[in-house]
Design goal:
Layout (H helix, E strand, L loop, with lengths): L8 H5 L9 E2 L10 H17 L8 H16 L6 E4 L2 H11 L7 E5 L19 E5 L5 H11 L4 E7 L11 H11 L2 E5 L11 H4 L3 E5 L11 E5 L1 H4 L38 H17 L1 H21 L3 E2 L12 E4 L5 H10 L2 E2 L1 E3 L2 E4 L7 H12 L1
Parallel strand pairs: 1-11, 3-4, 3-5, 5-6, 6-7
Antiparallel strand pairs: 2-8, 7-8, 9-10, 10-13, 12-13
Helix pairs in contact: 2-9, 3-9, 9-10, 10-12
Length: 381
């Protein structure tokens, strides 16, 4: 991943109107839009208003190529291994329905996992495939040991997240991938909390399948996601949802076609193109900033907030894994109601989340340290 010069963070903060209204610290949930992206979408809509589908503003092939090219560089994969879908749940569903399991096989999932990496697997129980859960741990190394202890000969698939959505703890993906490869077990990743925050590199980490949304660390629109399938795995999957956009030369409707596209066969029919324009804009911004710079800035802000909270007497989940970087700050304070705290912060214009009885903060690059000072000051009252 190339390194760009250090950006002007203050200039970037001014691109986000939300900073004039509130402090948005739920970026691993959803993210606000910036003025450059608003301009890009408006520009496309103006072109569409005057020339419809014949507009030369943000043409479909170009937008698709830019998005896939930037993501491929970020992930260290081929652009042709990526498909633009709607969300993580859909992508995990495509993978789950495509895998060829049999009665007696077992799928391993994460304890207290987000539902989008649980529900898509449940249909297998009707087919005699069992589902088990790897117990959580307060440390990445402890989780790796829990995973190894859960592996038995009948386990054929392990589907995990890159980061635990309730604690902010990153999982040791490279070690997990290497171990599962030795066992001949398929590794599926829910990259929702990881892509854009951590250097998730599927090929280097033994990940064959992955899905993630646009709207978290990549600052994109709601309702758009990405599916990755390693090219050597693609033809081995069942493909249950063939649509108009799944076949080669799909703009010619007759005669009907048998030959499927690459991974973009999962772009089944007419796409939500305005969201593509939105996503292209945010990816181009992050690419200009430099994904490495973006990640380091998020860590810097998260560390700053963590230090301030510790000084104010808060306990942090990240204290259990100090050698692992995370941009998600999960905190609690003895004798205080976290639910009330979250409610009070919201009334004062601070958006965060309540997760497993603790407060989850997730800063992004458009925030300033002065805003984090304001949050700690509110909590201290």
């Amino acid at each position: 991943m190339k390194t760009n010069p250090s950006p002007d963070w203050t200039k970037l903060q001014h691109l986000y109107p939300i900073n004039r209204e509130m402090i948005w610290l739920n970026n691993c949930g959803t993210t606000p839009v910036n003025t450059d992206t608003i301009h890009a979408v408006n520009e496309y809509l103006q072109g569409y208003a005057t020339r419809g589908g014949q507009t030369d503003v943000r043409r479909y092939p170009t937008v698709k190529k830019v998005i896939r090219t930037i993501l491929a560089e970020l992930l260290g994969v081929d652009a042709e291994e990526l498909s633009l879908i709607h969300h993580t749940n859909e992508g995990i569903g495509f993978i789950s329905l495509g895998l060829k399991l049999k009665a007696g096989d077992r799928i391993l999932l994460l304890e207290n996992e987000y539902p989008s990496n649980i529900y898509p697997w449940e249909h297998w129980k009707e087919k005699g495939v069992s589902i088990s859960f790897v117990p959580m741990s307060e440390t990445p190394d402890g989780f790796l040991e829990n995973l190894k202890s859960s592996i038995t000969p009948d386990v054929k698939v392990v589907s995990l997240s890159a980061v635990h959505w309730c604690t902010g703890m990153p999982f040791p993906l490279e070690e997990i991938g290497s171990y599962l490869a030795e066992k001949g077990i398929e590794f599926v990743l829910d990259g929702a909390q990881g892509v854009g925050l951590l250097p998730v590199r599927p090929r280097e980490m033994g990940i064959s399948y992955m899905a993630f949304p646009a709207w978290k660390w990549l600052l994109g629109p709601l309702g758009l996601g990405v599916l990755y399938i390693a090219k050597e795995k693609l033809e081995g999957l069942n493909f249950p949802f063939k649509g108009t956009g799944s076949v080669v030369n799909d703009e010619v409707y007759l005669p009907y076609r048998e030959e499927l596209k690459g991974t973009d066969r999962y772009e089944i029919s007419t796409v939500n193109f305005i969201d593509w324009v939105y996503f292209q804009s945010t990816l181009e911004m992050l690419h200009k900033v430099g994904f490495h710079n973006s990640m380091e800035r998020i860590y810097e802000l998260a560390d700053y907030l963590s230090d301030k909270l510790r000084d104010a007497g808060w306990k942090l989940a990240s204290d259990h894994f100090p050698d692992f970087k995370t941009g998600i700050v999960v905190a609690e304070k003895e004798g205080e109601s976290m639910e009330n705290m979250v409610s009070d912060l919201k009334k004062n214009g601070v958006m965060c989340a309540l997760r497993l009885g603790r407060i989850r903060f997730s800063p992004h690059i458009y925030l300033a340290k002065e805003q984090l000072d304001r949050v700690v000051d509110l909590l201290s009252r």
